[in-house]
Specification:
- The strands form 2 sheets. This protein has a 9-stranded mixed β-sheet with strand order 1-2-3-4-5-6-7-8-9. Strands 10-11-12 form a 3-stranded antiparallel β-sheet, with no helix packed on it.
- It folds into 2 domains: 3-67, no CATH class; 79-316, Alpha-Beta Barrel (TIM Barrel).
- With 386 residues, the chain is α/β, with parallel strands linked by helices.
- The termini are far apart.
- It has helices at 3-9, 15-22, 26-35, 42-45, 54-59, 127-136, 155-166, 180-183, 190-196, 216-227, 246-258, 282-292, 356-382, and strands at 87-91, 94-98, 142-146, 173-177, 202-206, 232-238, 261-268, 303-308, 313-316, 322-326, 329-333, 339-343.
- It binds iron/sulfur cluster.
Amino acid sequence: MELWQEMLRASVDSGKDLVDRFGFEPELAEKLNTLFHTRINPYYLSLIRYPGDPIWLQCIPDAKELEEDGFPEDPLAEDAHSPVPSITHRYPDRVLFLTTSQCSMYCRFCTRKRKVGDSGKISMKYIQSGLDYIAAHSEIRDVILSGGDPLMLTDTMLEKIVSGLRQIPHIEIIRLGTKMPCVLPQRVTQKMVDMLKKYHPIYVNTHFNHPWEITPEAKRACEMLANAGIPVGNQAVLMKGVNDDPDVMLELMRKLLAIRVRPYYLYQADITKGANHFRTPVSVGLEIMDKLRGHTSGLAIPAYVIDAPGGGGKIPILPQYVLGRNGNNIIMRNYKYEIYEYPDVEDEEKKVSADPQQIEKKYLRKRKSVQRKKTYKKEMVEVPAQ
Ligand code: SF4
């Protein structure tokens, strides 16, 4: 057994553990553990500095989770875009491939609480149907392995999936969505990265939320991936009490770059049953973005996005930099709130009125154009092979 597997075995993972180690009332511990499993491996547990700190909040269950009835279990309508059990196909050219229900830590804010940890819903038995679906859809060029955490699979199983994808000619890139570099960096072994680098281009998106998670172990894991030619990006979630502070976020982004991880997305927390106590007003996220831009390198600035409820996809949210127009000039402000004017070039777009009906007409035209492209691609796929 490898070290990371031994560490997993030593995880806090039962209602009894919550009672014995964290003083929960037995009934509450049982209810919380039933709503969403508890698993905290010894590495992540060791990062807690005091009860209620930003690490604690992410991994220790909270009674508030039980008070959140009436919220959606599947806020992003992933299941509605799932043609076979292991696949979410929302965007035209890429799919999410759910490979395992297991994670080395069950994050209390997880958007996929309804499935994660439940091997009846995400299972190895669906892997082949996922590969078959991807092979049958030539418009897919990008596959994101997710779950659960795909690095919970053994190297052998992971290679079976990655090599299976590489045999599909239209697959250009393979991405792994994994929290392991942050929560159990011991999982990133030389043997594993040597295996992955045979199947380039491989990308990793990982998930650090707080500067305390950037440890020597995490650094070693991320550098090992980068040294194998695997670009590593970070998808953080904005969470109350964890990282809803511009200084904390600035420190996190800078530290990520220092371990060769590129900040990629900052997500507004989704509206998910049992995780709403983490949500912050959007104004908090905008203020953070405002305090990042200009105050640190552009490389350290993620895109702040809201994953639209109901499955509309990621929508970028930006602080207001364009303040208006002065004739042909655009009036803008910079990061120091100094005002500048930029002489624009005359074009047709600018003539569109600010009248809401005109704007609606303009976007209707754009929606129709996207729709036409989708139909065209579908027809291309459905032409039978000669
Ligand atoms: S690692 Fe990812 S999938 Fe697993 S519980 Fe955390 S957020 Fe959810």
